[in-house]
Amino acid sequence: MAFNVLVVDDSAVMRQMVVRTLRMSGLPLGTVFEAGNGEEGLFVLQDQWVDLLLLDINMPVMNGEEMLRRLRATPETASLPVIVVSTEGSETRLAALHELGAAVVRKPFAPETLRDTIIRVTGVTDAEYYGPVSVTSDDSDF
């Protein structure tokens, strides 16, 4: 079962790195959508089926926390698995994100960290069903 992912980050370079990491992860991917801020991300979600959201916090127009609050307030997206991928360091803000049901991966991150967090929050992989999940890594952090 392949799953669709939405990557929301104001940095095109960071979006490319996250998408590259997803493709290296060995996880079963369908379509990977991209958006440059929370507002654009909400528009994508109106038109596309997404199984997982990877979300930055500090963005112009609509930040990630506001997008997450709107998702949780909408029945169709209230249970969407969300992983915040951010440099955010405020423990208060991180606690608020956890209360909204988001997992957090801090930048810079190792590809394995993102993969393992995706497995944990989505439950999409089962070694007996999909086979072993391997990561091609050049030992770089993103």
Number of helices: 6
What's the SSE pattern? EHEHEHEHEHH
Strand order of the largest sheet: 2-1-3-4-5
Largest β-sheet summary: 5 strands, parallel
Unreliable stretches (pLDDT < 50, length at least 5) are none
Distance between the termini: 27 Å
- Shape, please? globular
The radius of gyration computed from the alpha-carbon positions, rounded to a whole number of angstroms, is: 14 Å
Structural classification: alpha/beta
Query: Using DSSP, what is the number of strands?
Result: 5
Q: Would you tell me the overall average pLDDT?
A: 88
Strand content: 15-25%
Features:
5-stranded parallel β-sheet; about 40% helix; about 20% strand; alpha/beta; about 140 residues; single chain
